[in-house]
Amino acid sequence: MKTFFLTGLLSIISIITLGQSTNTNMSNNIEKTEQQWANELNPEKYQILRKCSTEPPFTGKYVNHKEDGFYYCAGCGTKLFSSDSKYDSGSGWPSFYAKADSANIIEIIDKTHGMIRTEIKCANCGGHLGHLFNDGPKPTGMRYCVNSASLEFGE
Ligand code: FE
User: Fold this and answer.
1) Residue 39 Cα to ligand 1 middle (Å)
2) pLDDT in tens, the chain (155 residues)
3) What residues have a C-beta under 5 A from ligand 1, the ion?
4) Which residues have a Cβ under 8 Å from the Cβ of 40 and sit 6 or more positions away?
5) Is residue 111 part of a domain?
6) Within a domain: residue 18?
C-alpha cells in the first residue's frame, strides 16, 4: 500500500513537471522560464522576442545595414539570415528574400490583429522574429520581414 501511494505521488509530480516544461518550452530546444528571459534580454528585445511585439518601422539598427555577414538570433545565437539575401523593401524593417538555413526558422499561422499572416520564429529558442510575406523579389518571391531587435549581426 505504501509503495502504491509512493508510485502514485511520483506520477503526479512528473505530470506536474511535464506540464511546466511544456509551458516554458514551446516549439524550441531551450528551456528557460519567462523570468529568465526577462532577466537576460533588455526590455525591448524581451517584448519583441518573447511577447511578439513589433518595433516601429525605420527605427531598428539593421534597417539600412549593408555589411557582409550573417544575422543571428538575438535570443540564442542561431544563424538566421545571410546579408546576401538582404534587400531594401521600403517597409522600414530589415528584409530578406531567403533564410540562411531552412531548419533554423519555423513558420506559424498568426491570426492576431484581424489579419492572417505567417509569423516567423527562431526554431531553436522560439523567439519571435517577424512575419513572412509573398511580395519579395526574385528568386524566391518571399519577404522575411524581421525586427532588428530580434537580430545580432556578425561574421
Ligand atoms: Fe533563437
Assistant:
1) 16
2) 454 444 444 444 343 333 333 333 345 689 899 999 999 999 999 999 999 999 999 999 999 999 999 999 999 999 999 999 999 999 999 999 999 999 999 999 999 999 999 999 999 999 999 999 999 999 999 999 999 999 999 99
3) 73, 75-76, 78, 122, 124-125, 127
4) 32
5) yes
6) no
Residue 132 is assigned to a structural domain of this protein? yes
Separation in Å, CA 52 to CA 4, 28, 40, 55, 147: 45, 15, 17, 10, 10
Distance CA 82, CA 65 (A): 12
Kindly give the distance from the C-alpha atom of residue 16 to the centroid of ligand 1, in angstroms, as a whole number.
26
How far is the centre of ligand 1, averaged over its atoms, from the C-alpha of 11 (Å)?
A: 32
How many structural domains compose the chain? 1
Where do we find the cell 525605420? 58
Which domain range does residue 126 map to?
34-154
Largest CA distance in the chain: 70
- Residue 20 falls within a domain, yes or no? no
Active site residues: 145
pTM of the prediction?
A: 0.81
CATH code for position 78: 2.170.150.20
